[in-house]
TrEMBL record:
Annotated organism of origin: Mycena sanguinolenta
SUPFAM superfamilies in alphabetical order: Heme-dependent peroxidases
Protein name: Peroxidase
Residues of the active site: 83
Binding site for Ca(2+) 1: 84, 103, 105
Length: 353
């Protein structure tokens, strides 16, 4: 499914290099450049009529809520996508019991967001909550488009296929299904297996912590991040978490993440993503796509990936000394190039700094 979707995108967007960056056919059709949005498909070029209303929803989320950046609202929206979908259980489904799903129940039920495991998600929920009614769409579609866009708001974040057509949540998500950082690797992997994920997919998904901060695990050091480059979607989370001899200033290691890095069943996959941005991006995108569909079937939904902006390729942003022909492990990103790419590829959503 992923390969099909991504190759569709590659064909649809016909990337060709402009100043070292791929640019989309949609942009070229608009004349590109000149202050017009780069790499952001325009509704005037929409292909599937079902997707047309979603361009405006995209802009409401990326503009008003994320302001085109990998900030607090984007990181919260990524976690929200997981906490909404991660209450899905194959075992509950098999027994026809009330189940979780990627259904947006977190935007609908007033009590679900108040659970302690959802601490820190209240603000993003209050920002997203009015949108399904405002635009006449389902909460699951809205919430999971927000998750996909949030990953793209983080430079380096991949394009994850975006679907619409989920129906309204059937019930509040059952309790006790979201992972806790003090659970063992075997307990955590069993819970993810009950969602339908293999161990390697979990190691890919956990890399979302590249854009994460903690506030409630150790409130004394609130806002410490899970890697030193929280503003970009890079593999440094894996590198730095795996380095058990050094705790870098301003960062925080969750016990579960350290356990994944060191446990014999997960260490190889965890280490395998270090410095391996391309593999991680594609495996993360596939796993996140699957997460965004838990409890649903892609065949029942419409793929509206046509409205997604281009991913920002971190390789183009490395400082010259770490660049050269070969991609170094964890290239140092030039802040000037990074900001220029954000200005170019997320232009319509940015607010003046
Ligand atoms: C073993 C599985 C996981 C555990 C135990 C875990 C645990 C946590 C904890 C304790 C926090 C910090 C919350 C706070 O104190 O504010 C956090 C943050 C975060 N998690 Fe996870 N997580 C897991 C998997 C995931 C997955 C699969 C994703 C997404 C695909 C994800 C995305 C995030 C993000 C983006 C944040 C940062 C939120 C923010 O900064 O507002 N996590 N996670
Ligand atoms: C979409 O294209 C129209 C017509 O070319 C243009 O007026 C508008 O500004 C474009 N919108 C975006 C978001 O680029
Ligand atoms: C953490 O960050 C939030 C917003 O980003 C801020 O309001 C809060 O004061 C910060 N807390 C600490 C302890 O720095
Ligand atoms: C851990 O990080 C330190 C400081 O950056 C570095 O000197 C050391 O080689 C790293 N260890 C491993 C195993 O990568």
């Amino acid at each position: 499914m992923l390969l099909v979707s991504l190759s569709f995108l590659a064909v649809a967007l016909l990337p060709f290099p402009v100043d070292g960056f791929p640019q989309s056919a949609a942009v070229a059709a608009n004349g590109g450049g000149g202050g017009v949005a780069s790499g952001i498909p325009n509704v005037t070029d929409a292909k599937n009529p079902v997707c047309v209303p979603w361009y405006g929803i995209r802009d409401a989320i990326m503009g008003s809520i994320f302001q085109g950046r990998c900030g607090d609202n984007a990181r919260a929206a990524i976690r929200l996508a997981f906490h909404d979908a991660g209450t899905f259980s194959l075992a509950l489904q098999a027994n026809a019991l009330p189940n979780g799903a990627a259904d947006g129940s977190l935007l609908v039920d007033p009590n679900e967001v108040l659970r302690s495991e959802n601490n820190g998600l209240q603000n993003i929920v209050s920002l997203l909550k009015p949108l399904p009614t405002q635009f006449g769409v389902s909460p699951g579609d809205l919430l999971h488009l927000a998750g996909v866009l949030a990953v793209l708001a983080c430079p380096g974040g991949p394009v994850i296929p975006a679907y619409v057509g989920r129906n309204a949540p059937k019930n509040i998500a059952p309790t006790g299904l979201l992972p806790d950082p003090e659970q063992s690797v075997s307990v955590l992997l069993a819970r993810f297996a009950d969602m339908g994920f293999e161990s390697r997919e979990v190691m890919a998904l956990i890399g979302a912590h590249t854009a994460g901060k903690q506030r409630f695990v150790d409130p004394a050091v609130a806002n410490t991040s899970f890697d030193t480059t929280v503003q970009i979607w890079d593999t440094r989370f894996y590198t730095e978490t795996a380095n058990t001899t050094v705790d870098l200033p301003g960062t925080f290691k969750l016990d579960s993440d350290v356990n994944f890095a060191t446990n014999p069943t997960t260490t190889q996959d965890f280490h395998g993503f270090i410095g391996n941005q391309d593999n991680w991006m594609s495996e993360y995108a596939a796993a996140h796509e699957k997460m965004s569909l838990l409890g649903f079937q892609a065949n029942d939904l419409t793929d509206c990936s046509e409205l997604l902006p281009l991913a920002i390729d971190l390789k183009n942003l490395a400082v010259a000394t770490t660049g050269g022909g070969q991609a170094p492990t964890d290239p140092v990103i030039d802040p000037v190039k990074l900001e220029a790419a954000i200005q170019q590829f997320r232009s319509i959503w940015l607010v003046p700094q």
